[in-house]
Amino acid sequence: MKTIPVRHLADTHQGQTSAGRFSMRNLADVLNDKALVHDLHKHDFYFILAVEQGQGIHEIDFIRYDIHNYAVFILRPGQVHSLQLTAGCTGYLLEFDPSFYQPKNTLAEQHWKKAISKNHCEVEESRFRKLLSYLSNCFTEYAAKETGYQEAIKANLDLFLIELVRQSRNPTRVSSGANTYIQERYEELLRLLEEKITQVKSVSQYARLLNLSVYQLNAITKASVGKTAADLITEQILLEAKRYLLATPNQIKDIAWHLGYEDTSYFIRFFKSHTGQSPDVFRKNFS
User: Fold this and answer.
1) Closest Cα partner for 69 from 94, 83, 86?
2) What is the CATH number of the domain that holds 219?
3) Distance of CA 63 to the CA centre of its chain
């Protein structure tokens, strides 16, 4: 059973400290006047791509985004993506693990959670310039590495995220009417789904893990995104299946086993009933 390729900051960025790892590069230096093509893979760190000028294609968890000027992409650890950038793109690429930047201040934490709840944002040119100024400050601090540079980077990331959430044209995943408690519990559920979907598939089990009743859990998911907990479980199973179908050459029976299905035929029926295609056909059509 092959796994989806995972990229680690430790592979290329040494010098881990108790403060966590952080890397930042200028896109012009990354590309070096050449096009960039990265096949499907995932990271165990956060990934922020800010494109000032340029074009390309960014596919995140099998949703395709055409890259245009003034675009920002944020990936959470575990998400699968492929990336193509044309030569001459400008902007910045940031990579950091959760131990480097994980805001604990209530307001900063809210901005961070809203920002990472969506993968793609496009903003107006004038507003992008403001975002770019914060990233430029981060880049200067990272290059100089003077005393306190990590704190300065985090402070500029706070400002960057405030502006990104403020100017994003995309609606947040969680409805504006959801209160903080509901939003926090919903986000806890999303984290559990990402971590445990191969072993845990029932609403009652997730409710127990969150110390909630099934009724309370469904009330939270409906208030947040208008879906039942069962809907979200199904979506996560299908997402994990698609990740393995497209990012590995594994046989269908091995993917079914990975997802916790001993009966391969049941898994195939489940997948087809929700996507309209068998796993094999989905894999061929997406290739």
Assistant:
1) 86
2) 1.10.10.60
3) 12
Q: Which helix (H) or strand (E) holds 282?
A: helix 279-286
Identity (one letter) of the amino acid at 179? N
Do 146 and 196 fall within a single domain?
no
- In the 8-state DSSP scheme, what is residue 70? S
CA 234 to chain centre: 19
For residue 23, the cross-strand partners are 95
Number of domains in the chain: 2
Q: What are phi and psi of 252, to 5 degrees?
A: -60, -40
Helix, strand and coil in the chain, % to nearest 5:
50, 20, 30
| CA atoms of 226 and 175, how far apart (whole Å) | 9
What are the CA-CA distances from residue 95 to residues 49, 76, 273 (Å)?
A: 9, 10, 38
Instruction: Please name which of 85, 84, 44, 78 lies closest in space to residue 61, comparing C-alpha atoms.
Output: 78
Please name which of 187, 39, 204 lies closest in space to residue 117, comparing C-alpha atoms: 187
Consecutive sets of 10 residues in the chain, 287 residues long: mean pLDDT of each?
A: 79 55 94 93 93 96 93 93 96 94 79 85 91 97 95 95 77 50 87 93 96 96 93 96 91 95 96 96 85
Query: Could you list the residue range(s) of the whole structural domain that residue 249 is in?
Result: 180-286
Residues 93, 188 share a domain? no
114: domain CATH number is 2.60.120.280
Residues contacting residue 137 through CB under 8 Å, at least 6 positions apart: 152, 156
Separation between Cα atoms, residue 193 and residue 235, nearest integer Å: 10
Candidates 192, 181, 191, 193; CA nearest to 220 is 181
